[in-house]
């Protein structure tokens, strides 16, 4: 998100009235997280100096408690990216910080100025703004070494109170507004879902259902299938599979509400997308009301790069995009922002350091990697927090005929309001061409 879209000036003046007599003119006030030892600089998206027509600005960076505060200089580090440098914070500071950008007339021009007298007013301002989404920043420090990053530094626990029923820590003690689930009445699929984060349905889909889609897909020359993320909008044979009533009933029973189809992957070769959790690519409000389906359209050869997963990893902390992105270099940010698809490519750009972190966590926990070696018609449903990957093909180019579909609970995608119902379930409506 561009920082220019989050200007403090859009707030009511009454919000900062108490701080106005003490603070200089505050242009921006945003929270962020940093997990760098001895933080001494951050990079932010946007051109801060353009906000006030080029008038001098200063940055004030404060830890959440107000015990440590620094004044920083703002300079452009790359087109569309500003860098704020300041005297380093001591070890143990953070990870929660606030960034304030103010008119320089109210702060000494020197970075050595003592901002301590402003702390009470800054804390009052932050408290008055209430909960705000974290600003995505890059973080720098003298000891930044991505080889030292740990899984805990790029993940956290999602709020348990709003998790789906089968994800509650104790089924007989659900969170507020959640139904009580009798563990003795769970279906085999629900039990496997709760324990392993998957539900495997052997021979679930018939040839009569799959073959029309296979014939249609064979007309596409690209091994990766359609480029469009929503080919279901145009391919009825695909939509018929993804909204098959028995499949939708299983999905609904695992997640706890009716599910909404919104994404397909139609490649017939391994994606070779390394270890990740799908949910960390979704908005925070999804919060585990998410599932994906892997459908085998033929026998899957073990050398073709089968789907691999870590059983039980859906109970691990959740990777967080904001935490992952803070360790990106400026060059990686530039590469992520400029792609042929028009989408921000940070998930693929950051795989170079996320995958080794996950591998280290797998080794630390001593858990197994499991491959889904399926027959035609077999289905694997996986949890949004399950750690999984498209494994590298040992025989490059060997076909791995499959269809992947992603779903979210209908009450947890307010960003997808246009919907239709067909067959056994809902799908989100998008107006993207079939490419």
UniProtKB/TrEMBL annotation:
Keyword annotations from UniProtKB, A to Z: Dioxygenase, Oxidoreductase
Entries under InterPro entries matching the protein: Phytyl_CoA_dOase-like
Pfam family, one: PhyH
GO MF terms, alphabetically ordered: 2-oxoglutarate-dependent dioxygenase activity; iron ion binding
Cofactor(s) in the UniProt record: Fe(2+)
PANTHER family: ECTOINE DIOXYGENASE (PTHR20883:SF48), PHYTANOYL-COA DIOXYGENASE DOMAIN CONTAINING 1 (PTHR20883)
Protein name, per record: Phytanoyl-CoA dioxygenase PhyH
Organism: Nitrospirillum amazonense
Lineage, top ranks: Bacteria, Pseudomonadati, Pseudomonadota, Alphaproteobacteria, Rhodospirillales
